[in-house]
Write a structure and sequence with these properties.
With 115 residues, the chain is mainly alpha-helical. It has four helices and two strands, in the order E-E-H-H-H-H. It has a two-stranded antiparallel ribbon. Strand 1 and strand 2 form a beta hairpin.
Length: 115
């Protein structure tokens, strides 16, 4: 779908590369190398597995409050992957996937949730 302007008292540019049926508009598809796509995919898989482990630890008691991130991996990585090395990044609730992408060790995240 082409970029559209939503008529409000202010203007918001909105862009969707998928139409209402989920079909990709090839001319709007971002140019991302296969290497970067694989790195992002691996990051999402690692994040999902790590999330499973943290949820298991939380249910068993070794760590405290933990909000699962399953299903949110792509939104975390999409936001974190475009940051530059000197850009600020503040970990948030449901942010471990982005934290790992930015270099936080999984051990450090487990220790954080373990208090």
């Amino acid at each position: 779908m082409p970029r559209q302007t939503i008529d409000l008292s202010y203007k918001v540019d909105w862009l969707s590369i998928l139409d209402e049926n989920g079909q990709l508009d090839k001319k709007l598809e971002p140019q991302i190398t296969e290497e970067v796509l694989l790195k992002l995919y691996r990051g999402m898989l690692l994040g999902r597995r790590f999330d499973d482990r943290l949820l298991s630890l939380q249910r068993q008691g070794p760590i405290g409050t933990f909000a699962p991130t399953t299903g949110q991996e792509a939104s975390q990585l999409g936001a974190a992957a475009v940051l530059q090395p000197l850009d600020w990044f503040l970990p948030v609730f449901r942010g471990p996937v982005a934290e790992i992408w930015r270099g936080t060790s999984m051990e450090g995240i487990i220790l954080y949730y373990g208090g």
